[in-house]
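Folds abound. A case:
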Amino acid sequence: MMSQKIVNLEEIKTNSKVMGYLNAANQHMKASGYTEHGERHAGIVSTIARKILSRLQYPERLAELAAIAGYLHDIGNMISRMDHGQIAARLALNILEE
């Protein structure tokens, strides 16, 4: 059995695919008339997700996973606003499996 690497938020933030997806999502959202949905937005959502779980006294690892999910939640917008959550989940799965 292969050992699995523990992913953290800092690795996600510096991942070239994530950065490219967020940039493309942000450009798509701007062209559609939405406000900023790039790295700044991802960082805000990530921070809020972590704080919520921390304040509810969930384990630190779950708070870290919430932060990762918050950071990745809008990457699907690079393809479509409709169903962007499901698209983001599929894209995130590929990134996390790497």
